[in-house]
Every structure is written in C-alpha cells, then in structure tokens.
Amino acid sequence: xxxxxxxxxxxxxxxxxxxxxxxxxxxxxxxxxxxxxxxxxxxxxxxxxxxxxxxxxxxxxxxxxxxxxxxxxxxxxxxxxxxxxxxxxxxxxxxxxxxxxxxxxxxxxxxxxxxxxxxxxxxxxxxxxxxxxxxxxxxxxxxxxxxxx
Length: 149
Ligand SMILES: [Zn+2]
Known about the structure:
The chain has about 150 residues and is of the alpha+beta class. Helix content is about 25%, strand content about 20%.
C-alpha cells in the first residue's frame, strides 16, 4: 500500500522545552557526542519560545534521516510536529525530510544523503541559493591562497 501525498505519517514527539533549556541540552549532547561519537541531536524548533526534545526511544520519528531530495516534510500544527508525505510514496521506500536548518554553523552539518541534488550541507531549501554562494566564495578563496603559496 502506497502512502498518498499529503498524508501525515508520524508525529515527532518529545518534551516541550524552553529555548534556554534547549541550548543547554544541545551543548550537553554535543559534548557527549565528542566522547561517544554519537552525534545525534534531536531538538526540533517548535516556535520562537519553545523547542521539542525528541531524544526518546518512543519517538520513532527521530530516526528519519535528512535528505536534500526528500519525500516528506515536517510541519507544525499547533504544538505538534508532524512528518507528512510530500507526494505518493511507494511501500518499503525509506522516508526522508529536509531538516530545514538555517546557515548558522552550516559547516558543522555536512550532508551525506547521496542524492544528485545534494548541496553538501544540511540546510532548508529556502537557504540553498545563499549556501551555494557561500560555498563558491570559499572555493575561490581557497584557490587564491593555493596560488599564492
Ligand atoms: Zn544532501
């Protein structure tokens, strides 16, 4: 059975926390990741005041990977985050959605999705033009310094 486009598939559940608590947990998880190599951070932006920390085994939605060519999207309905099908998805197809990160610290979020459309970093599609400009500026800067040395 295929999943028809537009279907809400799974809710991204977790604990509603303030931005302050979110930053604290985010940094704690990064420190933890440095020790264990487990780089996963499962904090999802809910609105300007609150985030959802989805780092709980019951939250299966946390296991859905990012892709630059995704078949799902995340949307916020009131205080709930849902992952919905962007178009009809065939049975047994892996689900992906764009994590929609902004460009702060984009270099720390390399993307390995393997899609032909991959932009090299995890970022929301609305940021792709700016991201591509940043990357090409960097490349030409690197070339210039390579020529100098
Ligand atoms: Zn990618």
